[in-house]
Design goal:
Helix content of chain A: 25-40%
Largest interface: A-B, 42 and 44 residues
Oligomer: heterodimer
CATH architecture of the largest domain in chain A: 3-Layer(aba) Sandwich
Structural class of chain B: alpha+beta
Shape of chain A: globular
Number of helices of chain A: 12
Order of helices and strands of chain B: EHEEEEHEEEHHEHEEHHHHHEEEEHHH
Order of helices and strands of chain A: EHHEEHEHHEHHHHHHH
Number of domains of chain B: 2
CATH topology of the largest domain in chain A: Rossmann fold
Distance between the termini of chain B: 41 Å
Largest sheet of chain B: 7 strands, mixed
Number of strands of chain A: 5
Bound molecules: iron/sulfur cluster
Strand content of chain B: 15-25%
Mean pLDDT of chain B: 95
Number of strands of chain B: 15
């Protein structure tokens, strides 16, 4: 990696999203002030900085591509930025919006939901940023947290690629000494196929992981689906486990469709 | 036979008080989220009472109110491991100096003394294996000081789980050594044997009664029966050669179809010692903390070198776990790395049972164990 100038510049862009991932910056509080001694933030609407087309060293991109206009904007971000880092489930896998990709009834939903659908100009499918432009690094999560963000920024500033931690949630769950909710309570936990990063947040509160950090390395969704079946979940309920926040991530997408078709993956 | 002194159940608090007076933080079995876990105990009243348990592959349930005893369960997800080999901890930190040089500081190693009540024979055996790893060739300062700070009160096992097989590995259910006090539980109290000099000193201060010989015989017999009642087993012999002769056995592929590669088995295993290390720089970029955390041969980083992960497939990862634990552990530490606690069976989300896998893999086509 090439060294950065004295004070690298940063932009935070928003596409179709809830703005929650950008809060990973704002939630840093006093640390954000310290960070701005090392980087210069030039564009970040949520913090009142409005320079979307200014060239920067690092662009963080939140949100999926949901409109034709966003595709144009993503291209502009790419050409104005040295590194593009997608943040969150929307930018990285299409997010909740990608649920609309599943049944190809975009127009029917639009017409049913909006009083004046003629003003709605959305694409049939919501897509991750990397489906349109080259993305250098991805931060998974819904939402991402400040710890992840800081680790990525620090790595880039030190001239090394950010660590891609794609271990399973289970590993962290055990490090946190949480009691497994699947083994003790038969809850359909997605921890064994989900990427770590949240600190095993849900099991810490006694509930089952719902996969908001997306697929982990080497996810055996077939075996986990069979296990869910054994716990008494019907095919549709298994499908819904996978087809939620990261329905656009191929491993979850495929597992969900297989479950929805009523089969398990061996059939 | 010498009959150990007897501590009526209502006097357990005296034991805790003596330990507290000596500056120990007391840790004992408590129920959290449906499992028996080790947690802080300030008063004997806080110890779980009346619980039994059911453990099966991928299944763990506690049942309340079925006994008057406090230790009528086999084990929970933790052993002593988290108390000596922390799940995540700081090893050292580096600070940038005004002249641009770096200054390194080792992490502090001053730990408070901890007394653990309710330690099992399998967990003591596992602690010995961890000592071999963390102390013998090159002492790990963190582990060393924590180990020295431990006072261990073992309780002989009377209620093995369906998943237990410590009798076949030779590590339980009787407690014989490597603790400070060894207790036999009866319905009304405990026989207390001092094992270490520190244990002897403490026992002298306890309100022990004269132990009844017949009652003690019964208590011992309960523990013997606990061993006999175990339904799982592993062959007592060294499986190294049988395992390494079977690296292409079709069973590896079959188990990989079920295995989630989630690492839970290695995390709950009281002898697994693998860890990864990572640097956590501060926000201002002038300081970095070097941390280590539990890792597992089921994670991609475990076999990552120079841009490739050598064991990409679950089949290879499962094989690594089993061939290390029951095979190459013999080369490394002179015995198998398994103490028969059964945790890897109960806490595997899909209930994979290594004793069953070993049976298939180490048995030749004629059905004879190799
Ligand atoms: S609770 Fe979920 S994340 Fe934690 S060990 Fe169990 S399956 Fe894994
Ligand atoms: S391999 Fe399984 S049974 Fe053996 S010590 Fe480890 S967790 Fe316990
Ligand atoms: S290689 Fe696997 S089985 Fe061996 S100690 Fe490490 S985690 Fe445990
Ligand atoms: S054997 Fe079970 S606990 Fe171990 S990695 Fe496989 S699924 Fe997870």
């Amino acid at each position: 990696m090439k060294a950065f100038p004295e004070k690298p510049t940063v932009a935070v862009h928003k596409f179709s999203s809830c703005d929650g991932c950008q809060l990973a910056f704002l939630n840093m509080g006093a640390d954000l002030v310290t960070l701005t001694q090392r980087v210069e933030i030039l564009h970040f609407l949520e913090a009142g900085l409005d320079n979307p087309n200014t060239p920067v060293d690092i662009a963080f991109v939140e949100g999926s591509l949901s409109t034709a206009d966003e595709i144009e904007r993503a291209r502009r971000v790419r050409s104005a930025s040295r590194y593009v880092v997608s943040i969150g489930a929307c930018a990285t896998a299409g997010g909740l919006q990608a649920l609309r990709n599943l049944d190809n009834s975009h127009d029917q939903w639009r017409d049913a939901i909006y009083a004046n659908p003629q003003f709605i100009e959305t694409l049939q499918h919501a897509r991750p940023i990397a489906s349109e432009i080259r993305v250098d690094y991805e931060l998974w999560g819904c939402p991402i947290n400040s710890r992840q963000l800081l680790a990525a920024i620090n790595a880039l500033l030190f001239g090394v690629p950010p660590i891609d931690d794609h271990d399973k949630v289970c590993l962290e769950c055990k490090r946190q000494q949480q009691v497994c909710v699947m083994v003790t309570q038969d809850k359909p936990c997605l921890g064994p196929v989900t990427r770590t990063g949240c600190g095993a947040l849900c099991p810490t509160f006694g509930r089952d992981c719902y996969g908001c950090y997306g697929p982990a390395d080497n996810p055996n969704t077939a075996s986990l689906s069979r296990r869910f079946q054994g716990l008494g979940l019907l095919p549709d309920a298994i499908a819904r486990r996978f087809l939620m926040i990261n329905s656009g991530a191929p491993a979850f997408h495929d597992a969900g469709l297989i479950a929805r078709s009523g089969g398990n993956q061996d059939d | 036979m010498e009959i150990p002194g007897y501590l009526p159940r209502e006097q357990l608090q005296a034991l805790l008080e003596r330990l507290q007076q000596q500056g120990y933080r007391c840790v004992g079995p408590r129920v959290r989220e449906g499992a028996m876990v080790y947690d802080d105990i300030n008063h004997a009243d806080q110890l779980a009472v009346g619980y039994t348990q059911t453990q099966e592959p991928g299944h763990y349930r506690l049942k309340a109110g079925s006994t008057v005893r406090q230790f009528a369960w086999a084990n929970g997800p933790q052993a002593l491991k988290p108390l000596t080999f922390a799940p995540r901890e700081e090893l050292w930190c580096a600070q940038e100096q005004p002249d641009g040089s770096l200054k390194f500081h080792p992490a502090a190693t001053d730990y408070e003394p901890v007394a653990v009540i309710g330690v099992r024979a399998c967990d003591l055996a596992a602690l010995r294996l961890q000592e071999q790893h963390f102390l013998d060739s090159c002492a790990d300062p963190q582990f060393a000081v924590r180990r020295r700070s431990l006072f261990l009160i073992a309780v002989n096992c009377t209620h093995p789980a369906q998943t237990c097989f410590c009798a076949s590995t030779g590590d339980g259910p009787e407690v014989d050594q490597d603790c400070d006090l060894s207790l036999y539980e009866t319905d009304e109290g405990f026989f207390v044997s001092a094992v270490s000099p520190a244990g002897q000193q403490l026992a002298l201060t306890l309100p022990l009664e004269h132990g009844d010989a017949e009652l003690f015989k019964q208590a011992c017999a309960e523990v013997t029966r606990a061993g006999e009642a175990q339904v799982r087993r592993v062959p007592a012999k060294n499986l190294r050669d049988s395992l390494f002769a079977q690296l292409d056995h079709p069973r590896w592929k079959e188990v990989a179809e079920r295995c989630l590669s989630c690492g839970n088995c290695t995390q709950v295993c009281p002898t697994c010692f693998c860890h990864s290390e990572t640097s956590v720089p501060s926000v201002d970029g002038h300081q970095t903390t070097h941390q280590r955390q539990w890792d597992s041969c089921f994670s991609p980083g475990h076999s990552y070198i120079h841009g490739i992960t050598l064991r990409k497939e679950t089949e290879q990862r499962y094989r690594q776990w089993l061939t290390h634990k029951f095979g190459s552990w013999h080369d490394q530490y002179g015995r198998s790395g398994c103490v028969g606690c059964g945790r890897c069976i109960s806490w595997c989300p899909v209930g994979i049972d290594p004793t069953e896998e070993l049976d298939v893999i180490c048995t030749d086509v004629t059905g004879r164990p190799e």
